UniProtKB/TrEMBL annotation:
GO MF assignments: FAD binding; oxidoreductase activity
Organism: Ralstonia edaphi
Sequence similarity: Belongs to the FAD-binding oxidoreductase/transferase type 4 family.
GO biological process per UniProt: respiratory electron transport chain
Keywords (A to Z) from UniProt: FAD, Flavoprotein, Oxidoreductase
Keyword Flavoprotein listed: yes
EC number(s) stated in the UniProt entry for this protein: 1.-.-.-
Name of the featured protein: FAD-linked oxidoreductase
Residues covered by the FAD-binding PCMH-type domain: 36-217
Membrane spanning residue stretches: none
Cofactors that this protein relies on: FAD
Amino acid sequence: MTPDNLIPALRDIVGAANVLTDDDCAEYESDWRQRVRGKALCVVRPGCTADVAAVVRACAQAGVSIVPQGGNTGLVEGSVPDASGEQVIMSLRRMQTVRAIDAANMTMTVDAGGVLQSLQDVASEAGMLFPLSLGAEGSCTIGGNLATNAGGTQVLRYGNARELCLGLEVVLADGQVWENLQGLRKDNTGYDLRNLFIGSEGTLGIITAATLRLYPQPAAQLTAWAAVPSLQAATALLALSHRHLSAALTGFEVMSQEGLRLVDTHYPHLRVPMWRETMWCVLLEASDSESEAHARAQFEHLLETAMEDGIVTDAIIAENIRQAHDLWHIRESITLAQAAEGPNIKHDVSVPISRIPEFVAQTDARLQALAPGLRLINFGHLGDGNLHYNVQPPAGADGAAFVAAHEAAIGDAVYQSVHHFGGSISAEHGIGALKRDHLPHYKAPVALQLMQTIKQALDPQCLLNPGRVLERRPGQMAR
């Protein structure tokens, strides 16, 4: 097999209609943020695991590297090809079969191309809950969610994608298939291979199926919106919420005034509550196993206590599902409002919750000194210490020019501050190509060495998503 006859071989495997070339590849070649555009040799769309394995074997024989792609909603440039025109994009979107639902085991086994929202609906129709939830759930795929260890809004209660996965099926770099879809909660027979592939961003193997953990549907789910005077007050409210709600607390999101201002500007029909009177707002969600009355009583007592303590200045509790949806829609619209405002600089970081107020105060001041007038759009999952610490250019500035001139210095300043406060430069988005060159500055050398050793062992030709997460080493020369 040579690169010149690879495309005909791929057509023989998946059918001519499922091998795209030239202009038909365009929608797969750019990332969601439109930051980068690559050029693919072709896009191949397998329909089953056997197809994936055969495609990988053909590419390995030809020495051609593969870029796995799900919904292509990632934010770190991890699922688009380079500019060489010599990489194959493997899109798993056709693989959407729900293979099995095991009600007694409370699991669901699905193909990797299943859209997250569709899988939520399938679980709901079976009377159960699949709790992974994030803004791109209408288009992201479960394979991509697992490959990046996606987080989302309910990590506080249910954990990241890693905690919601009990088994995987993975095609390795030589085309072998590792199948481990039994859905066991206990399996202490050696190294934890499943968790090795989760979060590896397609660099160690291609996830083709997963067995997912399901939960009972809650008897009631309530949402509240609270105005807080400071981030210190928000962290105090989080601690109080843990004491009052315990495991019933499923979501705790914080939003800065500037972020909500953008939503109000670009989406005034959403009617953002309270943002003008306070610097921060918090969105809380509680799931109750007893009844809505019980949940509401707990929520009301929590908020009354918080107001008496001075950590909440105003609050509302959604009266129905529609109102709850509207409040969550405001939170999820911050990213869209930033895009509507123009080019911006994104950071997905985690910091110990207790240190977040100090981190934000010090980093805000540092960035304002670096580029006076910039707008800080801070929001995210305070409940698990994950902030989307984003930067919007000054009002009226040329956004593209500002980003080009300041992104590198701002990124360095943010990551240095994150490191100083004992945090991580990537909480839930991954490393991809965007943060790859930053990683050696903030990851221990021994950790990087171990990661390189694993990559070399599982993908010695560096055929799987090369240049993502880790730099190529001498001898790892894939096309």
